[in-house]
Write a structure and sequence with these properties.
The protein has helices spanning 35-39, 70-88; strands at residues 27-28, 43-47, 50-56, 99-106, 115-125, 129-138, 141-151. It contains 2 helices and 7 strands, in the order βαββαββββ. It is an alpha+beta fold. It has one domain (27-151): Thiol Ester Dehydrase, Chain A, CATH 3.10.129. It is globular and about 45 Å long.
Length: 163
């Protein structure tokens, strides 16, 4: 493709949104390396008791029909709840929270270029587990609901100072 060809056309005739096209108040979630970084970029909004996570559906997230793959949406749900819990519950800050159980109910599709946004709640925290639930929307329509149980693991290592 030549440099002046412009962005690729989306299946619905429009053009996919820029990854930087995010709603006001959202900031880039810095995941570092690994699985979360590869599936991003993710953006978050944290104001008091409110925590939201979002992403713009890109071509790499889609199936051949231009619809966000269910595996990506399930992955997003599996990131939304523990990342939200870590940000909302002070004793969980910097804790690793592996998934024990994840339930996802798909209710509507997310299409190429859509802004997908999730909001979650911590339902209960025990000494070793966190129970959470969330709703994820795409274009303002509920796309899925999710719930999960997460193990409260060890603290993440603090970044080492540069030599």
């Amino acid at each position: 493709m030549s440099a002046d060809a412009g962005p690729p056309e989306a299946p619905n005739g429009g053009t996919p949104a820029e990854a930087t096209d995010v709603p006001p108040g959202f900031r880039r979630f810095r995941a570092g390396t690994g699985f979360i970084a590869v599936n991003g970029p993710l953006y978050f909004l944290h104001e008091g008791p409110l925590f939201k996570l979002g992403f713009r559906v890109e071509e790499r997230h889609c199936n051949p029909m231009g619809i966000c793959h269910g595996g990506m949406l399930a992955t997003f749900a599996d990131m939304l709840m523990p990342i939200g819990a870590i940000n909302l519950v002070p004793q969980l800050h910097r804790r690793f929270m592996p998934t024990v159980s994840l339930q996802v109910d798909f209710m509507a599709s997310a299409r190429l270029g859509d802004w997908v946004e999730g909001e979650m709640q911590v339902l209960r925290t025990t000494r070793t587990l966190v129970f959470a639930q969330g709703l994820v929307t795409s274009g303002g329509v509920t796309a899925l609901r999710c719930s999960g149980v997460f193990k409260i693991g060890p603290e993440f290592e603090r970044p080492k100072a540069a030599p």
